[in-house]
Design goal:
heterodimer; A: 305 residues; mainly alpha; MetI-like fold; 14 helices; globular; disordered N terminus; disordered C terminus; B: 327 residues; 2 domains
Chain lengths: 305, 327
């Protein structure tokens, strides 16, 4: 501040305003409710802090015990594996592929079909998670679910017998909108003349996709995969459908942390797992930002000719 | 580092242009109208050649394939939503989707339930409080950051944006719960508002700075010449210019908080303070046969504002993508 005031500002440049006073309130709020919790997770993860009991009053620092305990814990390793299935199955494969397919098929369509399709896909994305969770519980209900009525499979308990496929399909339904819109925008950047040339040369659809479309939208594909993986990895809405059950068979990491830390009271242990989630998030986010930066530098020379 | 503020922005622009571009796209064809290549072949229709015939077959297969695919997509996305459209108006709402025996009496159930309308009021308080806080703080910070030459400004913005997408509710639920407990914020609206605002602010500042950068500084210069203070300039000169930006942030913050489940679920134990998201969850998980008349009407009422806001924003400003905007 003082440095800014001291320096004579050139008449044309914007003058310094009460920078610190204007920025400070936002920074304080971000500091207390975003930065501090992240740092505190690291500390809490090194303690045996609990919600109740002796350790609640007087937590001890136990070093890396929580981490070694987690590695030895069957339930944690199981949860990790389910999370990998969930992210790969519902985001990387499900949302990305379905989103691209819809964008591809709708790319040169107009009219009500396009609008209705996009509208429904978007609706699944914007409705509050509590609402969609119940919609899926109703859809998959054992006795009166619409799905069983349609398939003539009365009594099929989808959420009990196939919890993982259920929440994977649910999350594909929930999140495809983002991929659809991103790829829709990306596809409109592919020069139509190139596709036309490829088609006249007798290229099949797959060849067109591989040789013409993919090189043009590579950056978008990566952006999309990074973001939807990050979001899916942190998604808590499946808690409202299965709560991780039955017997932890759909207990992905976010649900696991809740069940262990806040429901089970092992706050220190839960914080340790949270820190691992933070690290994975950081890898995704840094990769995303680097991608944006490199695309920026890539684009500069290409823009010239 | 100043060029770092641009990738995100240019990306957002590109998406916007992408969507806009589609409308004027040369490829725009009404359904069924022939593509240039087909026009070329139809001119030769007099003497069909094997290559053309196979091309025609390929085209037919593609059309059928596309139609089948779209029908499947429509079915998949519509199926779960049908219940929300029919059950609230069904005299005997069941879990199965059925043609409703039309009634509006189910909405009476909302009035009879002690928590239903209170929870919507709570959602309003929390969403409105967060929106006011986020808009105010983001506008102040973005204005200052946009106008002042502070070393490391863009690096700071990027680190904050990075943090907001890294420190999610899932990753920080333990410390957030602890923090709220120690600050005495458990079971308060303020706790939910502060917690959620902290996560929304970085992206809000980022978007707001975009709007601020786009406004000319000459008005401010002349206001300053006439002796206006920074606060006066902000209030009377800058705010009117960036009003669309403020509206965008406000609607975005409201939509985010309105749908939030995890944070209020953790921070509020008292059902009198719980927002719609949490009350709806307890309606279908806690004890006994679920009251479907109540759940269906409540779901509908609780969803409507989000849908309306979304339509409003996308109509007015188009879709924008920012890292962490939906978290």
């Amino acid at each position: 501040m003082s440095r800014l005031k001291g320096a004579p500002s050139p008449p044309s440049a914007a003058r310094p305003v009460g920078t610190a006073g204007f920025v400070l309130p936002a920074l304080v709020l971000i500091g207390v409710f975003l930065v501090f919790p992240a740092l505190w997770t690291i500390y809490l993860g090194l303690t045996d802090y609990r919600l109740t009991g002796l350790e609640a009053a007087d937590p001890r620092v136990v070093g890396l015990d929580n981490y070694t305990a987690a590695l030895g814990d069957e339930r944690f390793r199981g949860s990790l594996w389910l999370t990998v299935q969930f992210v790969l199955g519902s985001a990387v494969i499900g949302q990305a592929v379905l989103g691209f397919a819809i964008a591809w098929v709708l790319r040169d369509r107009r009219g009500p079909v396009k609008r209705v399709t996009e509208g429904l896909v978007l609706l699944a994305w914007i409705l509050p998670s509590s609402v969609v969770a119940f919609l899926w519980i109703a859809l998959l209900d054992r006795d009166e679910g619409t799905l069983n009525a349609l398939l003539h499979t009365p009594g099929a308990a989808w959420l009990l017998d196939h919890p993982m496929p259920s929440i994977i399909v649910f999350n594909v339904w929930r999140g495809t909108a983002f991929s659809m819109m991103l790829y829709g925008a990306a596809l409109s950047n592919v020069p139509p003349s190139l596709l036309e040339t490829a088609r006249l040369a007798g290229a099949s659809t797959l060849q067109q996709l591989r040789d013409v479309v993919l090189p043009h939208i590579k950056g978008h594909v990566l952006t999309n995969l990074l973001l939807i993986s990050l979001w899916t990895f942190n998604d808590f809405s499946t808690f409202q459908i299965t709560a991780g059950g039955p017997d932890g068979r759909s207990e992905i990491l976010p649900v696991y942390i809740y069940n262990v830390a806040l429901s089970g009271g092992r706050l220190g242990f839960g914080a340790a797992i949270s820190f691992l989630v933070l690290l994975v998030n950081l890898v995704f986010a840094v990769a995303y930002l680097r991608l944006l930066r490199s695309r920026r530098t890539d684009a500069t020379p290409k823009a010239a000719p | 580092m100043s060029e770092h503020s641009k990738p995100e922005r240019s990306q957002a622009n590109r998406h916007r242009e992408g969507r806009g571009g589609e409308v004027t796209d040369e490829r725009a064809e009404s359904e069924g109208r022939a593509t240039p290549s087909e026009e070329g072949t139809s001119r030769l229709k007099g003497r069909p050649e094997p290559a053309e015939r196979s091309e025609a077959i390929r085209h037919a297969v593609a059309v059928i394939g596309r139609a089948t695919f779209l029908a499947a997509v429509l079915g998949f996305f519509a199926l779960p939503l049908l219940w929300l459209a029919t059950a609230p108006f069904d005299a005997r709402p069941g879990i199965t989707v059925s043609v409703p025996e039309f009634t509006l009496r189910n909405f009476q159930a909302l009035l009879d339930n002690p928590y239903a309308l209170t929870s919507l009021r709570n959602s309003l308080i929390q969403a409105g409080g967060s929106a006011v806080l986020v808009v105010t703080l983001a506008a102040l910070a973005a204005y200052a950051l946009s106008r002042a030459r502070v070393p490391g400004r863009d690096a700071l913005l990027y680190v904050l944006l990075l943090l907001s997408s890294v420190v999610t509710g899932t990753a920080a639920m333990v410390p957030l719960f602890e923090l709220a407990t120690r600050l005495g914020l458990i079971d308060t609206h303020l706790g939910v508002v502060l917690t959620l605002s902290g996560g929304l602010l970085p992206a809000a500042i980022f978007i707001m700075k975009d709007f601020m950068d786009g406004t000319p500084t000459s008005y401010e210069e002349s206001a300053r010449v006439f002796g206006a203070s920074s606060g006066q300039i902000l209030r009377h000169v800058v705010i009117p210019l960036v009003r669309p930006g403020l509206a965008t942030i406000a609607v975005w913050a409201v939509a985010n908080v309105w749908g939030s489940f995890l944070q209020p679920f953790i921070l509020l134990r008292d059902p009198d303070k719980a927002p719609g998201a949490v009350i709806l969850y307890t309606l279908y998980t806690e004890g006994g046969a679920p009251r479907l008349d109540l759940i269906s009407t409540f779901s509908l009422l609780y969803s409507l504002p989000v849908v309306v806001m979304y339509v409003f924003v996308s109509r007015r400003y188009g879709f924008r993508f920012h890292g962490g905007i939906k978290s």
